[in-house]
Amino acid sequence: MRDAQSMLDQLVAFCGSRIEEANVQEVFGFTSVERIADMADALLARRAVDAIGVIHDQAARGRDLSLFLGDLIGYFRHLVVAVIDPNNAFVELPTEAAERLREQARQSTPERLLRLIDHFASTEAKLKWAPNKGLHLEIAVIKAMQILGETTLSDVIGLLHQAGGAIGTGFESPTGAPAGSSRSEPAAPARKVAPKPGPSSVMEETALTPDRSSGDPSGEAASPAPRSRPKGPLSGADLWAGVAEVMRVERPLFASCVNAAVFAEQTDKKFVVHFARADSFSRDSLLRENNRTFVEDLLRELSGKPLGFVAEIKDGLVQAPKPPIEEEPESPSAAPKTKVAAKKKIVAEPVAVPAAEPKAEEPLEVKAAEPVDPVAFFQDPLIQGALDLFDATLES
Hints:
The protein has helices spanning 2-15, 21-28, 33-44, 48-60, 65-84, 95-105, 110-127, 133-149, 153-162, 164-169, 236-250, 255-259, 280-286, 289-303, 374-378, 381-390; strands spanning 209-210, 262-266, 270-275, 308-313, 338-339.
């Protein structure tokens, strides 16, 4: 309370009877929530030029960059809460800031936000004693963008678990490929290997003789016909079905992620899909930068207009079932089966090994310890050197 009264006295002294938000920011060096949100937008979108421009603007206005970084860390804390618990995340914020934070939460994942907070927290500790705070903050911002673009090991492991069913199904076999199109090779002659010196034995190496399969004499397999994408313009659920069809063919690892999404809403500027809370990893995988760009390119191609891709967690949805793993049927054009000739048994003649004669154990000689002369021990040069070094004497 005493600090608040002191700050109020300073504002009255500088601003008079009318005090506005801009006056408080100017007197105490605070940064507005809108400016912090601009910085967060630039970081999440990895726009380095805009982020460094915000830092230069704050430095030119005489703002304390340490306070600015602390406010940015607090903003990312609100963003993490908004991603995890959207219902209780916007109590402390104004309406406009809460709406902007809600939009940013749709494009973020808790893991990457927590890594950003840890990174900026370590930078904040260094910034207090840094002579050039602007330089250190710019370097921290560039490193933060690199962190956002990294693929973590947990991302790869989780993605493989989610896409396990899609890996087992494989691609559809192209139509029009002739059966048995692989070129058959002639049987290789059998080779005989001479036995190594030692016990007499009979060994013979047999070769694998592949079956000859009837097929195209040219031996060239027909190349698969290129797949055509769905024709546009599409909209709504049909548009998402077209995107899912292309993703299953061109990016089969993400087929299960696409199957978990449910179309929710389409406007002039954005395309919204919903995920069950249990499918949050599928949502995070599609929101990664490379996958999100690919999906937005497909939306623009199939709908004929640019659309932003938005993926949200919707309570009440049931988790999408994982696709079953199907076994691939044997095709006529499969690799030729091989016949293995029966190998002859190895017959070894027993060789008598003479038994070693036992050696007589020699008795161990135990020597008695030689007596130590106390006078000779204390006259040892090392003992005398230690006594001189520590200025010590021996007492009996």
